[in-house]
């Protein structure tokens, strides 16, 4: 049987079939008859076959013209039973794949219901608020990490902090740079001192440590007192009469103080800029510090990720906190001593104090280390108090204080965490003040102290930088604490030995070691012999000027604090209604 396409209508007026069948002439002159069935369908219906010419044409019993028409139309007709069965079979073989996860079944039942603790709406609100705060802290931490990583990648070393940082000393145009030492070179050094240090001379006198402060806790905190009548000395190396005498007797080739040596030993941990003056006189080296040097002040949050503002008017700025920390450290070292007790005296009295002034009790130990056959070093080391160990033997102690200024900045509230989480508080301080704690530990090791006492001093109110309270005091053995903070004594002496060897190669003159404010490196400059002459006075000073501390900022701040405290007491006294209230206010 052939395939009969049928008659295709022709529309001469446009596209598509003509409007009325038979009205338009057809292709070949015939008249069209609409014999193709049309079945309307919805858009949601599935479309199957349109035409199937493989079917059995026609129906049994059909003959003639009707059979031909039926065979022609049957290719478009799918209403028969066999077609319905075929479509059903085809639909049964088709399946949809649902990619959505199965729904979670509700946790109903007695077991789940009784295992869950009921939560009050207030508790839920607190948990939501706590989660929001944790999310904010995490976001801020990630942002700081991203900024630090970005600045480290582009500028090499904490460029975001050091963009505006300035060197501790103004670099003059006539200075000649001789060496530039990266900190990475210092971390690889190691040197073991041959002999144990030898005490050449011990001067001064110390009081005994008051052991009742070991039992102080945040609930029984004690107010920090002010000792404005006591003098604290920060005398540099060449101004020390004992060191001058030892140098004339040719007792060593290198002379320094424990603060200067500790700064050199902990150089890789430092972030802020500092400087040390080196004088080569004959075959001897003198490591000095300038008057008003940064080494006289204690840093605060030096190694923290979030840096402090530089605005001096802000009480939480880096310069203001440095003066406050130094002032706290001095007062703490005097308050924890036994009052009116028997002093422990040594070979000679305090070489810096006069008869008319009250000097803070300090023991100065002039100790000598032998670096090699040709080089030995003498350093003046300080001990702040004396004590007795459980066996009854005498101990030497160093006293230092950490200060808390704003818990929102540090992230740890000492008044709440010191009793239950002392380790967390110490870990936070090791992260934020790694350089300061390392220097204190190095000074304790140099002085031969048996114990180092660390006090935790906090502001009475975060916005009040005049009044403080002692929250607790902890004691550590210097060697154990050095191991805990990963301070290697061999590396410390390796740094000192390398710097001494470099300076010994220079000619006679004056040099300056400067910590670069923007990069982890140290620069050595050769300066004129008359450099810093405005700061160093050649003629001997009167006694009343010699006993003054080297840091004028600490004295000025102390006077401001005392004046503010007296003004507050007077104001409270005048505002009292009766005599009893006035007395209570004055006592407060």
TrEMBL record:
What is a single molecular function from GO for this protein?
translation initiation factor activity
Q: What's in the keyword line of the UniProt record?
A: Cytoplasm, Initiation factor, Protein biosynthesis, RNA-binding
- Annotated region (RNA gate) at 294-308
Quoted from the entry, the domain comment is: The RNA gate region regulates mRNA cap recognition to prevent promiscuous mRNA-binding before assembly of eif3d into the full eukaryotic translation initiation factor 3 (eIF-3) complex.
- The protein's name is Eukaryotic translation initiation factor 3 subunit D
The record's principal subcellular location, in a coarse class, is cytoplasm
The UniProt regions of compositional bias labelled Low complexity, in chain numbering, are: 556-574
Q: How does it assemble?
A: Component of the eukaryotic translation initiation factor 3 (eIF-3) complex.
Keyword Mitochondrion in annotation: no
């Amino acid at each position: 049987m052939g395939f009969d396409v049928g008659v295709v209508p022709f529309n001469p007026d446009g596209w598509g079939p003509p409007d009325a069948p038979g009205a338009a002439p057809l292709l070949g002159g015939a008249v069209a008859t609409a014999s193709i069935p049309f079945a309307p369908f919805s858009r949601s219906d599935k479309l199957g076959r349109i035409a199937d010419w493989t079917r059995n044409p026609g129906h049994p019993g059909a003959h003639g013209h009707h059979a031909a028409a039926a065979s022609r139309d049957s290719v478009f007709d799918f209403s028969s039973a066999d077609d319905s069965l075929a479509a059903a079979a085809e639909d049964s073989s088709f399946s949809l794949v649902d990619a959505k996860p199965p729904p979670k079944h509700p946790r109903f039942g007695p077991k789940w219901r009784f295992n869950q603790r009921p939560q009050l709406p207030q508790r839920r609100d607190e948990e939501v608020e706590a989660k929001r705060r944790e999310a904010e802290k995490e976001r801020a931490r990630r942002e700081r990490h991203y900024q630090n990583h970005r600045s480290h990648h582009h500028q090499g070393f904490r460029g975001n902090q050091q963009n505006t940082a300035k060197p501790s000393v103004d670099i003059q145009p006539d200075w000649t740079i001789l060496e530039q030492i990266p900190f990475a070179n210092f971390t690889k050094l190691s040197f073991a001192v041959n002999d144990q240090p030898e005490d050449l001379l011990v001067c001064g006198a110390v009081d005994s440590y008051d052991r009742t402060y070991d039992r102080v806790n945040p609930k029984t905190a004690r107010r920090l007192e002010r000792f404005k009548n006591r003098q604290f000395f920060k005398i540099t190396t060449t101004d020390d009469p004992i060191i001058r005498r030892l140098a004339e007797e040719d007792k060593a080739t290198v002379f320094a103080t424990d603060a200067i040596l500790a700064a050199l030993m902990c150089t890789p941990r430092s972030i802020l800029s500092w400087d040390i003056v080196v004088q080569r006189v004959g075959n001897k080296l003198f490591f000095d510090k300038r008057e008003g040097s940064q080494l006289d002040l204690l840093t605060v949050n030096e190694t923290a990720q979030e840096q402090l503002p530089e605005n001096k008017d802000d009480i939480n700025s880096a310069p203001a906190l440095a003066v406050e920390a130094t002032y706290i450290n001095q007062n703490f070292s005097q308050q924890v001593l036994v009052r009116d007790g028997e002093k422990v005296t040594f070979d000679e009295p305090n070489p810096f104090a006069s008869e008319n002034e009250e000097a803070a009790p300090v023991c100065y130990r002039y100790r000598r280390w032998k670096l090699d056959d040709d080089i030995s070093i003498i350093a003046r080391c300080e001990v702040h108090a004396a004590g007795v160990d459980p066996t009854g033997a005498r101990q030497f102690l160093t006293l230092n204080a950490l200060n808390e200024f704003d818990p929102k900045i540090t992230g740890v509230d000492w008044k709440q965490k010191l009793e239950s989480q002392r380790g967390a508080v110490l870990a936070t301080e090791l992260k934020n003040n790694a350089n300061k704690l390392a220097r204190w530990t190095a000074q304790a090791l140099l002085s031969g102290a048996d114990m180092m006492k660390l006090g935790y001093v906090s502001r009475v109110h975060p916005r009040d930088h005049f009044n403080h309270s002692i929250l607790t005091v902890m004691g550590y053995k210097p060697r154990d604490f050095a191991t805990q903070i990963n301070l290697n004594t061999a590396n410390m002496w390796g740094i000192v030995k390398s710097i001494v060897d470099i300076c010994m190669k220079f000619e006679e003159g004056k040099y300056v070691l400067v910590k670069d404010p923007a990069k982890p490196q140290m620069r050595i400059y050769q300066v004129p012999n008359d450099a810093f002459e405005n700061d160093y006075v050649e003629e001997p000073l009167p006694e009343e000027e010699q006993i003054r501390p080297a840091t004028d900022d600490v004295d000025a701040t102390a006077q401001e604090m005392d004046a503010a405290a007296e003004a507050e007491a007077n104001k409270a006294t005048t505002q009292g209604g009766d005599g009893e209230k006035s007395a209570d206010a004055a006592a407060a």
